[in-house]
Amino acid sequence: MHRSLLPFLTVAVLTFLSACTGPAPSSRAPEYDVVIRHGRVVDGTGAPAMNGDVAIQAGKIVAVGKVAGAGRTEIDARGQVVAPGFIDVHTHSEDVAELPVGENFIRMGVTTIVTGNCGGSKLNVGEFFSSITKTGVALNVATLIGHNTVRGQVMGGSFARPPTDAELEKMRGLVDQAMKDGAVGLSTGLIYLPGTFAKTEEIVALAKVASSHGGIYASHMRSESTGIFNALDELTTIAREAKIPAEVSHLKLSGPAAWGRADEVIAYLDKARAEGLRVTHDQYAYTASSTGIGTLIDADFREGGAKRFRERLADPATKAKMVAEMKGSIAKGKRGDYTYAVVASFKADKRLNGKTIPQAAKILRGADTLDDQIETILEIESRGGAQGVFHGMSEPDLVKFLAQPYTMVASDSGIRRFGEAVPHPRGYGNNARVLARYVREQKVISLEDAVRKMSSLPARTFHLKNRGELKPGFVADVVIFDPEKVSDPSTFNDPHHYAVGFSDVIVNGVPVIRAGQLTDARPGRPVKLQD
Questions:
Q1: Tell me: domain 85-291+391-468, CATH 3.20.20.140, correct?
Q2: Which ranges of 213-284 does DSSP label H, i.e. alpha helix?
Q3: pLDDT by residue (tens digit) across 188-210?
Q4: Fewer CB atoms inside 10 Å of the end CB: C or N, the chain?
């Protein structure tokens, strides 16, 4: 080769290599706040994972792929998944301003929560958001406006009747104000007081208000057992008449009498969507639910509050009706007794925490016959009530629901006080359990689809703008986890353990978990429907 050509060939080779590799991180490109390098990027859309980097600047994602410029914070995600921060659309976290870290959520990759579910919320959404901003929280927070909260505010103790025209108008006004303040929709809890006494027409009227603002209707339906199809009829009627998207809260089939009908439920939901309704659902990855022990007693006996309940309990004839109804319910559900129900938190007697109802009956009454179990439940309710865990679902049904494309992963949990009582483990491990048990071990769904169910699907369903995807211009909520190590050590008997396998969690561009350690940052903020 002629020597005079060498300089030109050298320049050409260097130019080619530069085009292939890009400039070194320290040269030419502007610096970023954070650069995550060498990760397995799962962008939240369900698309196949790719190897690459993610750059963050001013709270937004600005580049995904090969990032040349340096970050002020550099995170090596080699061997780990980089995904959008998870969005939990079904929480009970109205106390987030008092518990601003929400460590049980962020430790399992959740960066945004939707509270106000099952009909219970803060009444004044504007004040709620102001308190979050003033306090400073680690998570982003959206809320629904709760029907039970609104109904209780307007109708006082008169629950077992329809509202008057004037009362309904006041209820509409409260929902309207909440939506103007940024609520993402209306929720109902139709097994709870006072919502259980509401007729469908009342809910339609309020759902129309939420619909006018572009909100969603999320419902804990009247039945999740053998009456589920009637409950779904009501939900779809509300969706149709109010012209509103509908969300089935914590989709399940509860109790042996209802097991095995998942395919029928799925067919019902698919048919509703084929008819033009926008229907979605969320689910936690456990075969036990959690709610008040008082729900084991028919709502008619609990109407009017604690004082009225104790009065009914003191009347022999009324008490006899209570007991007969409870025995009938046990027989209808094919459960045998209350072994499936566990006391999670009973402030009046902490000895019962973690005990099944038969075990609690032994402690309180020295015997565990069905009559003693019923007496124990009535006593617990008369002494202020308790939270319970109810083992009542089958895993084959759970798996079928999880595999559906419109199912989101949601915990149905509040913010945990570490070490307090014996709560459901879903508050510590729900997202981790999906990734470990149903992605890695059982391969029920793919990693990419699991992340989609935790990120872009929730964001789009609840209209959380520019969240749920790793995409330039989107909010920089990001989670980094090891797909081979992620797990949920929290159990029913020993729940107070944070999820493992999550090395970094970033909220609005700021790390709240860095290299496995909690930081002092509180970058969370209210997320409003108008945002």
A1: yes
A2: 228-242, 262-274
A3: 999 999 999 999 999 999 999 99
A4: N
